[in-house]
Request: fold
Amino acid sequence: MQVLDASSALYAWDNYPFEQFPPLWAWLARQIATGQLTISAVALEEVGHKSPDAAIWLKAQQISVMPMTEAILMDALRIKGLLAIEGDQYGSGVGENDLFIIASALAHGAELLTDEARQPSLPTNRRSYKIPAVCDLPGVQTRCLSFVEYLKRSQAVFG
Reply:
């Protein structure tokens, strides 16, 4: 199972217009229908703020929305501690919602689809880690894929 981050949902929506790539969107609809592709409530809300049409499409497909649970909130708090983030003193890396999204993927033993940029050399300040770097941390270690990596790995052909 894969958990969709807002960045990947928006990347797909912006770069593969529904009208021009109908087979891709039919395939994504099947991934959603079979429960292979899910989204956290926080990520769906972010998509809705930035692209209401994308959120409408996801909801119309009846995407499984992962609710925020106490266990997810506690795990997000644990990850926040790994990053040495105190209070609301987030750096230039992940924000609070990102931590909830990562914790949602962890809670379900799922991969995270995110199009946040990988950082070739990690900053010394962990508060500046982006989602892929946080996913690689000892104690987190969840697989992150970009939308294109997800497509390539599927070996689906859209013709």
